[in-house]
Amino acid sequence: STVSTVTHPTPTPPPPSFSKLGSRISLYTPQSYATGELIILCTWLGAARKHIDKYIASYLTIAPNAKILLIQSDVATVTSSYPTQRKAIMPAVEVVRAFLSECTYPT
């Protein structure tokens, strides 16, 4: 019998100023972080570093004090089972949960 294996291409490494949280998830936290500002950048199917950098530069101009959560994808990730996808996205989920817990809203 033939066993099929899915190979995952090496993800584009995050920019040096980003902390790697998972194989395809990283987080940028500026020195002067403003509570309540989070940008979630989801790249499309193996986006090249130059394209990711272009968006990051734009977001740093628009919201210089915001955290940036970078989530990269590839075909193998998108076509993997839902349990595998859930496990892979958990570092991003934790960032969003922590972010929401920082925000207080009047009741």
Which key features would you list for this structure?
107 residues; alpha+beta; 4-stranded mixed beta sheet
Could you characterize the architecture of this molecule?
There is one protein chain. The chain is α+β, with helices and mostly antiparallel strands and 107 residues long. The protein has three helices and four strands; from the N terminus they run E-E-E-H-E-H-H. It has helices spanning 49-62, 75-78, 82-102; strands spanning 19-20, 25-28, 38-42, 67-71. It has a four-stranded mixed β-sheet, with helices on both faces. It is globular and about 40 Å long. The mean pLDDT is 87.
Structural class: alpha+beta
Uncertain runs with pLDDT below 50, 5 residues or more? Answer: none
Largest sheet: 4 strands, mixed
Mean pLDDT figure: 87
Query: Can you count the helices?
Result: 3
What is the topology, as strand order, of the major beta sheet? Answer: 1-2-4-3
How big is the Rg?
A: 16 Å
* Number of beta-strand segments: 4
Helix content: 25-40%
Topology as a string of helices (H) and strands (E) = EEEHEHH
Euclidean distance between termini CA atoms: 61 Å
Q: Which term fits the overall shape?
A: globular
Q: What share of residues are in beta strands?
A: 5-15%
